[in-house]
Amino acid sequence: SEKCLLRHFSSIGFWGLVNNAGISTFGETGWLSMEKYEKFADVNLLGSIRTTLAFLPLLRKYKGRIVFMSSIVAYFSLGNGIYSMTKAAIEKFCDALRLEMKKFGVRVCIIQPGNYARSTKIQPPVSAEEIWNELSEEEKAVYNKEYVQEWANFFNSILSKGSTNGNEVVDAMVDALMSPTPKARYMVAKLTEKALVFACALFPTVVMDSVLSYALSK
């Protein structure tokens, strides 16, 4: 199917590629299996890389645009480190690609949405019972159900505050594709979310670790 698409677009032109596939979940590092880490890397990171490499010859030929869906959690993690990991990796891939494609006239843009959980189905509310049942015996020996429930409540409270204006993210994607002067990064987030990203970039890691640890303990 890939060869068929390439043959088709070679004759009519290919100008824009949007890498938007993504999955998300919740859980501390030791709660998740290696299989789940591999699945997330395959979908969120390697999937975008595969698609990009497949269409790169056409994008160079037609001086096109490549848009990647990242997230503000590429800068920090609050219960979904596996998702943050893949988004941080895709950001670095894009940084390298953007510089390399500049000489060909190809623009590479990153969309960094904030919390839009109520606009998409990428992250449904989590169930503490389901999380507990999936834990290994080793993890159950370290944690207890009350801790997992508190974590789930905290994460669900964040999800419930997500924006319902998903069109804001779509507008950024359209601008990245159509603007004569697209931005390298589009941070589509609330002011408080942007402030948190700014703080992560500005303050030493030890300071932000203390701030985030305090927030997680509340």
Short description:
This protein has about 220 residues and is of the alpha/beta class. The protein has helices spanning about 1-10, 35-60, 80-100, 130-135, 135-140, 145-160, 165-180, 190-200, 205-215; strands at about 15-20, 65-70, 105-115, 185-190.
Largest β sheet strand count, sense and barrel closure = 4 strands, parallel
Extract low-pLDDT stretches: none
Order of strands in the sheet with most strands: 1-2-3-4
Beta-strand content bin = 5-15%
Rg (CA only)? 19 Å
Roughly how much helix do the residues carry, as a percent range? 55-70%
Head-to-tail CA distance between termini: 51 Å
Topology as a string of helices (H) and strands (E): HEHEHEHHHHEHH
What's the tally of helices? 9
Class by helix and strand content? alpha/beta
Question: What report would you give on this structure?
Answer:
The protein is 58% helix and 9% strand. The protein has helices at 2-12, 34-61, 81-101, 128-134, 137-142, 145-160, 167-178, 191-202, 205-217, and strands spanning 16-19, 65-69, 107-113, 185-188. α2 links the parallel β1 and β2 (65-69). 26% of the residues are buried.
Characteristic terms for this protein:
single chain; 218 residues; alpha/beta; 4 strands
Write the layout of secondary structure elements.
Blueprint: H1 2-12, E1 16-19, H2 34-61, E2 65-69, H3 81-101, E3 107-113, H4 128-134, H5 137-142, H6 145-160, H7 167-178, E4 185-188, H8 191-202, H9 205-217
Parallel strand pairs: 1-2, 2-3, 3-4
